[in-house]
Amino acid sequence: MTFLFRVLVFPGFAFLFLLTLFCDWFERKVEARIENRIGPTYAGPAGLFQPLADFIKLLTKAEIIPTRARKPIFGAMPLIAFSLFVYTVFYMPIDGDYVIPASGFEGDLIVVLLLISIANLAIFLAGWASSNPLSQMGASRVLTQFLGFDIPLFLLALSPAFLANSLSIAIIAAKQIIPFALLIPWVFVSFLLTIQAELERDPFDIPNAETEIVGGYETEFSGAKLAFLKLSKDVQVVLGAALTAELFLGGPYGPVLFGSKAAWYAFWFVAKVLLVILLSELITSLFARLRIDYVVELGWKTLLPLSLLMLVLTSWLVKVKWEGL
Q1: DSSP calls for 207-225
Q2: Does residue 179 have a cis bond before it (omega within 30 degrees)?
Q3: pLDDT of res. 277
Q4: Within 13 Å and on the Cβ side, how many CA atoms surround 285?
């Protein structure tokens, strides 16, 4: 019974679903304030229920499937991408333990990074299966972008692993008496920029650039398929923020003032995820969309050599500074 509660309610699926909707509302409110707008206001207090209303509205819309679409792939990929992102979040300690107790292991960081890549591949296949030139162009941009930024992401994620002397996300988070974002701020800033590109957020939103390719890989999707495709992207944002919080901000660990330790850990987890999303929204609002050739050059010519240099520097710090103390 405890197992089912953890997986289905807290800190499992229901908690993640509500957190995703809340983070979507938070993003829209922050971006609106930065741009001197109001943001959602009508559905619920301060527009809090607007993301849920949008999701339900899409579920009720009629679905239109292109005649030449590869129907099995076209229909399955949004659900597969959503499921992969949700499953990946389950490897994050949220209340001081994994969603599935004792499911973590030494090396689960590598599994999380691998699952993120596979989920991005599912999004690529969703656009490719549409048999629409604009969708296929957006899908090819997804593939180009995540290939260019996956390697720097992997290398930058290894720096906190070096500091913690572990490839376990829970151990990396637990060992941060001082957040690694303060010990290696250059890696934190680079990781934040790289995860911004992985999430396809401004200024890296070229796979669905509406001014260039209508809606990119989403162009031919409608109804429930579009609802789950958009929800999977929202879960991906939470996943990216959660991974950043675990690796650089101590994850769920923080002061326990009174009462339940698990409740306080969940509170600190949500607070740190919202902090990362706030930083991401600042980048989104302050910078205009980059051209695709600039995005590719930034990944291969700038972030890749920088990530290698930062990994070498971090390993040197571990050997010379920390081990010498």
Answers
A1: GG-HHHHTTGGGTT--HHH
A2: no
A3: 92
A4: 17
pLDDT value of residue 325: 45
Compute the distance between CA of residue 243 and CA of residue 263 in angstroms, rounded to an integer.
20
Which has the closest alpha carbon to 267: 283, 279, 257, 252? 252
**Contact status, residue 170 vs residue 98, Cβ threshold 8 Å:** yes
Report the C-alpha gap between 159 and 147 in whole angstroms: 20
Asked whether the beta carbons of 192 and 279 are under 8 A apart, the reply is yes
What secondary structure does DSSP assign to 178-241, as a single string? S-HHHHSHHHHHHHHHHHHHHTT-TTS-GGG-HHHHTTGGGTT--HHHHHHHHHHHHHHHHHHH
Per-run averaged pLDDT (10 residues), the chain, 325 residues: 80 88 90 85 86 89 81 85 88 84 80 86 83 79 80 89 87 88 89 87 75 72 85 89 92 84 90 92 83 81 87 79 52
Give first-to-last CA distance, the chain, whole Å: 47
CA angle 12, 274, 105 (to 5 degrees): 45
Considering the entire predicted model, what is its pTM? Answer: 0.91
Q: Please give the Cα distance from 196 to 262 (Å, whole number).
A: 29
Phi, psi of 108 (to 5 degrees): -70, -20
Q: How far apart are CA 240 and CA 40, in angstroms?
A: 24
CB within 8 Å of 235: residues ≥ 6 apart:
16, 20, 82, 85, 86, 89
Angle subtended at Cα 308 by Cα 304 and Cα 314, rounded to the nearest 5 degrees? 140
